[in-house]
Specification:
mainly alpha, 2 helices
């Protein structure tokens, strides 16, 4: 598996796990969508802050 494929798989798992946990708790669909959007926003913000802090250094991307 290439480096980019591994990173994409990791990011997908990191986004799916919170949604799966909410589905397991039988959260209503409207609440689930809202929480999923919040988790995605947190994830994107975290990636943005890491990119802003470390730049494009290969060892951190």
């Amino acid at each position: 598996m290439s480096d980019h494929a591994g990173q994409a798989l990791l990011y997908a798992v990191l986004l799916v796990l919170p949604v799966a946990a909410l589905l397991g708790r039988r959260v209503p669909m409207g609440t689930l969508v809202r929480y999923a959007a919040i988790w995605i926003a947190i994830f994107v913000l975290g990636l943005f802050l890491i990119r802003l802090t470390y730049g494009n250094h290969r060892e951190f991307t």
